[in-house]
Amino acid sequence: MQGRIVFLLEEPSMRVLLDTWLPRLFPGWVAGEHFLCIPHEGKSDLDRSIPRKLAAWGISQDRFVIVRDNDSADCVGVKARLQALCQHSARPHTLIRLVCQELESWYLGDLAAVAAAFGQPKADTPAQRKRFADPDAWQKPSVEVRRLVPAFQKISGARVMAQHLDPQRNHSHSLGVFVSGLCRLASSMGYQAP
Fold first, then answer.
1. How many domains does the chain have?
2. In this structure, are 76 and 117 located in the same domain?
3. Which of 158, 8, 5 is nearest to 68 (CA)?
């Protein structure tokens, strides 16, 4: 096993989630040793950072994953623009993953995790599961999570969701694409995929 997987992230809440969740997905992984999460302060900050970080990164074995919310934008266009930012660096094979529409879509995809994380059993009912059967289709999933959990906060919510989120039962297509791409990348680097 050589190199780390370096995540360039749009926001700090994704870092909080991944720092705890990735060692659950890949038992034995340690933050800083097997992966590194670098949060940014929004899309513009991330976009400006990508070419600089990819070009200046001094550890050739490290591999990069860019993760950002789609926020109802044209997925194909956003991904093409991010790929263009990567092409001009020495790391054109950077994995790009869009969260449809925002991080909270992943939470709506696993209502059992929401119920367990926040002590809200009414969040995981047959009616709610039917309502959120396609969590990636919701324009503002953060609003929906706050309806289920009125005290929800992005950072503390990410921390507790990381302890319960299960990709095997999650209905978010974008979460499934993220996990499968990450497993392929990890395997190509010599890490055992779950």
1. 2
2. no
3. 8
Range of the domain at 126: 104-161
For residue 71, count other CB atoms closer than 10 A to its CB: 15
Indicate the pTM of the whole model: 0.95
From the list 189, 132, 192, the residue with the least C-alpha distance to 5 is 189
Instruction: Note the pLDDT of residue 88.
Output: 78
Q: What is the 3-state secondary structure (H, E, C) of the chain?
A: CCCCEEEEECCHHHHHHHHHHHHHHCCCCCECCCEEEEECCCHHHHHHHHHHHHHHCCCCCCEEEEEEECCCCCHHHHHHHHHHHHHCCCCCCCEEEEECCCCHHHHHCCHHHHHHHHCCHHHCCHHHHHHCCCHHHCCCHHHHHHHHCCCCCHHHHHHHHCCCCCCCCCCCHHHHHHHHHHHHHHHHCCCCCC
Q: What is the pLDDT of residue 90?
A: 77
Query: Which domain CATH number covers 48?
Result: 3.40.50
* 6 has a pLDDT exceeding 70: yes
| Closest by CA position to 18, among listed 124, 126, 161, 115 | 161
Q: What is the mean pLDDT of residues 132-149?
A: 97
